[in-house]
Design a protein that fits this description.
2 copies of one chain form a homodimer.
Chain A (H helix, E strand, L loop, with lengths): L12 H23 L26 H18 L2 E6 L5 H10 L2 H5 L7 H10 L27 H9 L5 E8 L6 H6 L13 E8 L15 H10 L2 E7 L3 H28 L8 E7 L9 E2 L2 E2 L17 H12 L3 H4 L8 H4 L42 E4 H15 L6 E5 L17 E2 L11 E2 L4 E3 L3 H13 L3 E7 L7 H14 L11 E6 L17 H5 L7 E4 L4 H13 L4 E5 L4 E4 L3 H10 L1 E3 L13 E6 L1 H17 L5 E6 L17 H8 L5 E5 L4 H7 L8 E4 L10 H7 L4 H11 L7 H21 L4 H4 L8
Parallel strand pairs in A: 1-2, 2-3, 3-5, 4-5, 9-12, 9-13, 10-11, 13-14, 14-16, 15-16, 19-20, 19-21, 21-22
Antiparallel strand pairs in A: 6-7, 8-17, 18-20
Chain lengths: 792, 792
Amino acid sequence: MAAEPTTTDTLTPELLTRMNAWWRAANYLSVGQIYLLDNPLLREKLTLDHVKPRLLGHWGTTPGLNFIYVHLNRVIRDTDSKVLFIAGPGHGAPGVVAATYLEGTYSELYPDISRDEEGLRRLFRQFSFPGGIPSHAAPETPGSIHEGGELGYSLSHAYGAVLDNPDLIVACVVGDGEAETGPLATSWHGNKFLNPVGDGAVLPILHLNGYKIANPTVLARISPEELKSLLQGYGYDPIFVEGEDPDPMHHAMAGALDEAFARIAAIQKAAREEGETERPRWPMIVLRSPKGWTGPKTVDGKKTEGFWRSHQVPFSDMSKPEHLTLLEDWMKSYRPEELFDDDGRLRPEIAALAPEGERRMSANPHANGGALRRPLRLPDFTDYALDIPHPGAVEAESTHVMGVFLRDVMKENLASRNFRVFGPDETASNRLQALFEVTDRAWNAQTFSYDDHLALNGRVTEILSEHMCQGWLEGYLLTGRHGLFSCYEAFIHIIDSMFNQHAKWLKTAGEVEWRRPIASLNYLLTSHVWRQDHNGFSHQDPGFIDHVVNKKADIVRVYLPPDANTLLYVTDHCLRSWNRVNVIVAGKQPAPQWLDMDAAIKHCTQGIGLWEWASNDHGGDPDVVLACAGDVPTLETLAATSLLREFFPDLKVRVVNVVDLMTLQPKSEHPHGLSDADFDALFTKDKPVIFAYHGYPWLIHRLAYRRNNHNNMHVRGYVEEGSTTTPFDMVVRNRLDRFHLVADVLDRVPKLAGQVHARQAIRDKLTEHARYIRAHGLDLPEVRDWRWPGGE
Amino acid sequence: MAAEPTTTDTLTPELLTRMNAWWRAANYLSVGQIYLLDNPLLREKLTLDHVKPRLLGHWGTTPGLNFIYVHLNRVIRDTDSKVLFIAGPGHGAPGVVAATYLEGTYSELYPDISRDEEGLRRLFRQFSFPGGIPSHAAPETPGSIHEGGELGYSLSHAYGAVLDNPDLIVACVVGDGEAETGPLATSWHGNKFLNPVGDGAVLPILHLNGYKIANPTVLARISPEELKSLLQGYGYDPIFVEGEDPDPMHHAMAGALDEAFARIAAIQKAAREEGETERPRWPMIVLRSPKGWTGPKTVDGKKTEGFWRSHQVPFSDMSKPEHLTLLEDWMKSYRPEELFDDDGRLRPEIAALAPEGERRMSANPHANGGALRRPLRLPDFTDYALDIPHPGAVEAESTHVMGVFLRDVMKENLASRNFRVFGPDETASNRLQALFEVTDRAWNAQTFSYDDHLALNGRVTEILSEHMCQGWLEGYLLTGRHGLFSCYEAFIHIIDSMFNQHAKWLKTAGEVEWRRPIASLNYLLTSHVWRQDHNGFSHQDPGFIDHVVNKKADIVRVYLPPDANTLLYVTDHCLRSWNRVNVIVAGKQPAPQWLDMDAAIKHCTQGIGLWEWASNDHGGDPDVVLACAGDVPTLETLAATSLLREFFPDLKVRVVNVVDLMTLQPKSEHPHGLSDADFDALFTKDKPVIFAYHGYPWLIHRLAYRRNNHNNMHVRGYVEEGSTTTPFDMVVRNRLDRFHLVADVLDRVPKLAGQVHARQAIRDKLTEHARYIRAHGLDLPEVRDWRWPGGE
């Protein structure tokens, strides 16, 4: 079934010679970056002074990447294709940087790295050198949307990039080490969600160089039949290119790329012009070439080329004179004098192999997606407001209301095809089903008549893999579009590490002059810790917030809107923002609604506020501050306030609600932080504060520990107690419920010392609740149907 | 290539009838658990009072699981096999619980859930009911080692369980939803690490019921040829069982299991008796059956059986009389009166289908691995001590020393085959290569003559998938063995979510009377944030510690040994412990060594201590406390102390080092927490404390915010600044270096106010450093080769 590699006559001898020269030049520059400080063209005898004192970098994957790159350039020129390059083996930055330098893009963006001998010296010196550039493909690398740090995400980024980019082909090199990761192993299935009409194409190039740091790779050590079967099973039609002798390898690779590009064109023509709707078998290439190809065969008598010893720096103790000779011989084997002219400039006949302008992969506009980004057309979110006659009068599912707004965001931007929603099969479960009034789920596999909103051109993209959802969305955003990832709160930890890498990308990209801001990565976390009625303890974890706030303050935002109207405000705000990661935590279950739209706007604009309607301190000093962040904590806080009003009508209670968690940090640490004066005005300098928080309670201490009144803050939150139980029992088990909050007030307000009757009433209520749920499996009606009594 | 299902004559009509009766009974009990509070045998007309007021649970996957279970029981009896059952679709707990009840195990472990009508009533009532049991397979479930919460880990658990258990077969049901996750997609490759001689067998049963919550599944919607090709590509020989008509399905499944068990036996015989060494193609089964099989075909006119509407509770508004009738009809369709006798006990001819005693999957001893756990034979760790004539006199790679100790742990336990080391291709990189003196890397794929320590019976198990390493280790520990996972610090976030689930398992298992403690899950995190010389910013994240300490205090421990001898102590301690997650963070690079073994033992026994040899407060009050946790912060703190000694000989400096991070928490919050008196004795009540910490600085505030002297604590740590640079530059960028620490002291000790010359000296030094690394790419010799001057 799979096609055999074809040795075409694509490459005339003259062209082959030139392409091989480019490859030699790229390899030469790669070795130079890893090893040399100076003497870039080896015009002097190499000495220890020319060599970097610390050798850091990865040679092993690099010659293979260089080989692929020059061949892609050839086919791009022949077919005038628009290709974006993703280097899964991110350690191959010496190669990626060399290619972008040879194409001229590097010098255009970094004029000090000029196309002459001095530029070469600087190019070499800066690599993995303090103050220079990292040893991975990184935001600094022209043409890259893919951080070469943690492995596993190249293919999902590639599939994200081509969505809604019908003219784009992403050539995605997948390393055989990376291919062992779980996220990569499932991302081959991206082809089941690709629309050959409206989306572009991904050309995976599985690069089997056989080794990781110190081990062979799995895919290089299974039989060729098994490998072919695996890739066909993933839905591809693989073309194999295998060997080590450059000439036949050049012919085979050229033939393979001709064939792959022709098949992509044929598939797209069939789908776009002939109405073909069956899922195509997309081509892919398997390139099996030696690790450290063209490098030293042996070092100190030990096998090096074609072995894991080539993985990083093949030899490093340069105080050995034989190593210096080995390096010089190795670099000279590429014959630099044939490649660069007297000024150190790539010879024009070789340079002519590069495509022109934006056809250069290093200058593909999609790789600087911010420059293509157009703001979303947003409907007026206030049009979706719930009417709230008085606080607590109405019950609603907040995320459902958000879903109606998102539906119209989707509708308004259907024509520009730049907005998608991603999720692991939870869009409907998370109450965003209004989206299906205007679009479908993306799906390109078998369908039946009774299927529900599956379509080739669906814009809700769902697979049961949080990794894939995150990778798709990152690829989509990095190429200039907009999106939202909705997820069960507990399971978002699955992509903790991907979030890390994206947040670090945003931080560094913000420091790269030519990168334009991209749309923010927006999370809706719902089915949250307090409402895991079905799923119990294993689904209870609000710690993603803690993880997020470890990253740079100017990148991250965390919002806990307490009801639907505040959620609308926050959603609109996040969809307008850029270069951020926004985390929105909101409930999907029916819950009392507090603020009308005017109040919601006022509250969210501040991010934190005193709820006067719920307080009775009337602008004076309160006896106690009840603070809350999160929908369930807000409900319990208001219920506690109401109980306190009943027990102790003279007690002055102030209610403070927090939407934007970052307001709690000092202004010096986060741009959204309240000034100390504003913080003191809300929380007082000396009154007890009972803070009911959605997540792990210590986060509030961490954020507020420098505040004046911190020592009086008592925080309740999730303390890892839970099971499959009722909603109210969940808060009781974690002592976040109204009764425990009242008990906390009793413990901390001096003038309430001793209130034996109130304490007993609370204990009785908790006992009654425990008895009731044992008997009925339901919460007590009075806690289940509770409404804020203030306005009634 | 793949075998076709065989309709054997395994099942006589009588046996088929009885097996079908068991299946009906299991399905009946499953529906009963989801829906009923009372009237368990439907001996009265069903009324609303008999039905649970909140319906929580998952029907969809359950009948398929029940079908598989009864067929496994048949083949277990026929072959006397030892089988452990893993239900990847953890939502199928109604089925798993029903099976263990039918086998009698449930009532043996929970006598109140007796084998009679009252027992049935309690069985039904407890399910997903407050105070009862969760709706997933969980620690409470007999025979389970697999939490049915977050999906993706069933196969890696299965492969971990069979390692070194040659007689064990794990029948692992993989749901087609779960199969979309990344971790599951790569874990099929577990067969490349399985030794048919010394390990048992995994029988994957891919259950295609076609739907997730609201979507079809990918693997159910690709062509049968593609699916077969995919599974063959993963190295399996799949047997397909497809249909919905029970009788032929029973025949097909019986034939498939006969064939699978026969092939497993043949493979093991060939390997064990005939010396076959080629990797076998293990059998697996693909079961394609309707979601919600035997449930209502339609509900309210909508397709339900064989569709996603069966996923959870197929119908729930029980106030509709037609729903009550539908439920009664559905349950009666299983003919309970034929299944249970007058007392409500399963009829003996059906009960006789269960295997006996420990052959019951629900009573497999490996599933309560703690009962099988034998302590490791540990060499005396003090024999591996580095000789330290005086602090700082010796430089060594701490993890290398640990590796020598681990080598002998491995050696001492080779015969008992109960210790393994797991890692993502980093064992050698992390300097644990001494292990390869006594064992190899586990490998069962192609090998070449020049390969390095690959062997079928290797006990270092490496794949470039942190998910797989974690899953293997969890499966290995849960079945009663011991192990260690070594990982780059930054990448351990990849398994944040798996750690969560394991920690939650440990918490809950500790509350289940019959579960015995299992060995702790031990992490060595190295290549840590401060020494990412090669890898730069994307590899810099010390936040796993923050993630871990969110879990229950009695489960988690975090150790930051500052040198090799303390690392030896901590390693020994962790390998002896149980029911914990131990996180050890230690460096692999050459670094000064501080404590001889006697001092290390004393220091680690306390977990925190005053280093008198580095302090000059001589038992009196210090002017400042310099605290440190982690090897690099310790080095910088000692260097700062030395500088302070030089600048200000009269300044009284106290150095406190923290090995066990949990000592900082109040005793009320963590069992290792220091008493306030001890904390005050170390940190004083009122003197400035400059705390140099390995990770994100706010964690120290979070742990210590209730301490008396907290307001005087100033913490330095990683603040997300970094690149590919020198080690000292990394600490400078994050202001954790000796010079910034001295500046912090100048800022905070009143009697040093105004020290213009010292400040200028520090600024000059930082400038000199910046110039030097720009020029040389190396740290200044004086910071690179620094030694504690005290003892020289």
